[in-house]
Amino acid sequence: MNGKLLFVASLSARQRLAERGVLIGRAVFYGLILFVFSRLWDAVLEGEPIPGVEAHQLVWYLAITEWIVLSGPPLHSEVEDEVRRGDLVYRLARPVSYPVVKLAEGLGDLLVRLCSLGVVGVVVALVITGRLPAEPARMLWLVPLGVGAGVLAMVMHFTIGLTSFWLHDCRPIYWVWQKAAFLLGGLLLPLPLYPPWLRAIAEASPLSALLYGPGSLALGLDTAGIWMVLVRQLAWLAVAVVGLAWLFRRGVARLEIGGG
Amino acid sequence: MTTAIEIEDLTKSFTLRQRAEGLRGAMRGLFSASHRTVTAVDGLSLRIAAGERVAFLGPNGAGKSTAIKLLTGILHPTHGHATVAGLVPWVDRRRLAHRIGTVFGQRSQLWYHLPASDTFELLGRVYDLPRAEHRRRCAALVERFAIGEHLHTPVRQLSLGQRMRCELVASLLHAPPILFLDEPTIGLDVEAKATIREVIRGDSERDGRTLLLTSHDTADVERVCDRVVVIHRGRLLLDEGIETLRTRFLRRKRVILHTAEPELALELQGVRVIDRRPHRLALEIDVDVTPVEAVIHAALSGARLRDLTIEDPPMDEVIQAIYARAEQQHQGAPP
Q1: What are B102's strand-pairing partners?
Q2: Cβ-based neighbour number of residue B77 at 10 Å
């Protein structure tokens, strides 16, 4: 990443830091979600324990998966706005690539969200469970895994936003993506607890590298497993970037046909 | 004089999807769609010399935005040729971006929660300006546009007028010889509008910058530009100097007479009373029918004049008249 893109990312981070109300609101929501689901699992596991999984592990698991979901910048809606309002047309008249600058902006936003929610997640999960996950030092792997998942989600969101060139409203696509990510990514439950057929589908999708992969650190993922998640994230990222570039070229070509 | 913008027979057509009316039409549209071709810019030819300040006017849908998108390299033409600052826009878009500036009144390039100085710093990097050069230009423009005291205030706390001055500085940091301005005074109060017009024109005069301005506020046109280009349905309708435009199209004058007597009766051909109050009479005169001096002569013979004002009708009316005439011609033209 060159100097100008780093500067874009830093400006974006500063812009997000200036939105203190939004940061606080998101942190409160995150804490609330963790609290509600921790109570739910306590009740469920009290009645019917799941072999090999303890309630505190599920809380830390959810803290990680929700941390990634809530940290993803809403690039889909930003891109949709810019396509619909025509701002994108004017941003194209700059001597820098629109997708690259947009992703740099997203990266700044992502890092602010990851840092702020990361602190909230650790504190709330610690208060709820009263203990750190097993092998706490291993949790440092969350830095590359969280950033990898966040960047992958960001590229996917951007790509979904680009469908606005054709659909004018990308929300239906985003809704499907979001629900698929919750289900196949294993937002609330680790994939080993899924029925085998659904688990096979989930593991074959990029969504498991997004949420379940980093989340399984709370379940004792070993180093080889961590590297495998990182490799899967990178592989899916490469596919997503190619898809984004292709869709962007098609979208801009559409301006030629249908006007700005 | 060198040429800043040259356009030859520029044409751009789009294919638009047609939707049938009603529920049945909407259902049918899900499976089959008809299309129609719209020519937004239709054989436009124009030459703008370096340093000229040109108003680019037309009613909504006339093709102004499409023409500007072609000139900034965002769209490729269906037919024709253009050069802007010596470059073919759609071939050299990235290089051209260094030679043009853009200001869009309804879109901001400033980071909303951050001071404008941060955006200026970013633009210096985006345009690969050497640090010392960037600092020097930034300081000069900040002084010229009088935004020194607002430089470190978050943009969201600036008034619209202050923000627009910052937008102008942002657009000029890379010293573009050509500046595209789209509704630069929209939403501003009277005082802020006057300031913006003054700084835009002053900057252009000082640096010899070519301006291409689109605006629905005719005062922008009068105060900033020397030449008016009107397009209608994608075609060049009129290309005149501001003064020529006035003399050619302003065939009416407004005369306001302040009289010692409370009433003045004037009945002349081509003269219409537009406002009558005690000691004051406002008239609109068709100068092709009755010259202004004949009206004044008639007024002097009927009353003692305390004051007299002669005005041109607002430019608004001139532009409206041009559009209306073009529309009549279009409707009367054989298909």
Answers
A1: B180
A2: 21
Determine phi and psi for B247, rounding to 5 degrees.
-70, -30
Q: What is the pTM of this model?
A: 0.80
Q: Among A94, A217, A220, A83, which residue's Cα sits nearest to residue A160?
A: A83
Closest residue in B to A256 (Cα) is B75
Q: Which amino acid is at A229?
A: V
Nearest to B74 among A7, A18, A92 (CB): A92
Q: Do B15 and A258 touch (CB under 8 A)?
A: yes
Whether A258 sits inside 8 A of B121 (CB atoms) is no
Coil, strand or helix: which one is B236?
strand
Please choose, from the candidates B116, B119, B96, B97, the residue with its C-alpha nearest in 3D space to the C-alpha of residue B159.
Answer: B116
Q: Is the pLDDT of residue B333 over 60?
A: no
Number of folded domains that form chain A: 1
Vertex A235: Cα angle to A111 and A190 (nearest 5): 70
Report the distance separating Cα A236 and Cα A103, nearest Å: 16
Q: Give residue-wise pLDDT tens across range B30-81.
A: 677 777 888 999 999 999 999 999 999 888 888 888 898 899 888 889 999 9
Amino acid present at B43: G
% of chain B with per-residue pLDDT over 70: 93
Paired sense of beta strands B79-84 and B53-57, if any: unpaired
Q: Mind listing the domains of chain B with CATH numbers?
A: 3-10+48-246 (3.40.50.300), 251-312 (3.30.70)
Residue A139 per-residue DSSP state: G
Residue B129 DSSP code: -
Provide the residue range defining the domain that includes A194: 2-257
